[in-house]
Specification:
Blueprint: E1 4-10, E2 15-18, E3 24-37, E4 43-53, H1 54-63, E5 69-82, E6 88-101, E7 115-117
Length: 143
């Protein structure tokens, strides 16, 4: 079983790109606090590279910014490619399958609590209509 669950803060705004075939891909890094303090009593964090594809990529790029908390469920992927210098490069990253807002409304710039699941089919998603604009009134939010 290959399943990863993370809660962390974005280290910078997600980077949205499109492949030659038109698929959206967003790259971002989550800073995830370690459970225990180090010998100096300080909490350390791991910086974990993540990637989201298709509608999930657009969701992340449109609704998440640097510093916001995110809950992510996905899988670990290791891939390789040949660099411009001819050397083989290895990349380890988490491929996001489900993404949710975490934290207060103010932490998420008033975007409300929504989640998005990438099932790679037409029924993927939550209450977000695929490709629809989210319009809401702050008074409608339960928090």
């Amino acid at each position: 079983m290959n399943k990863i669950m993370l809660i962390g803060r974005l280290t910078k705004d997600p980077e949205l790109r499109y492949t030659q075939s038109g698929s959206a891909v967003a790259s971002f890094t989550l800073a995830v606090n370690r459970r225990f303090a180090n010998q100096n009593g300080e909490r350390e964090a791991d910086f974990i590279n993540c990637v989201a594809w298709q509608k999930s990529a657009e969701f992340v790029a449109n609704y998440f910014k640097k510093g916001q908390q995110m809950a992510l469920e996905g899988r670990l992927q290791v891939r390789s490619y040949d660099g411009n210098d001819g050397q083989r490069r290895w990349v380890t990253e988490v491929v996001a399958e489900q993404i949710e807002f975490v934290g207060s409304k103010n932490d998420n710039a008033g975007s409300g609590r929504q989640d998005y699941q990438n099932n790679n089919n037409a029924s993927a998603g939550s209450s977000l209509g695929l490709g629809e604009e989210i319009v809401f009134d702050d008074n409608d939010l339960p928090f």
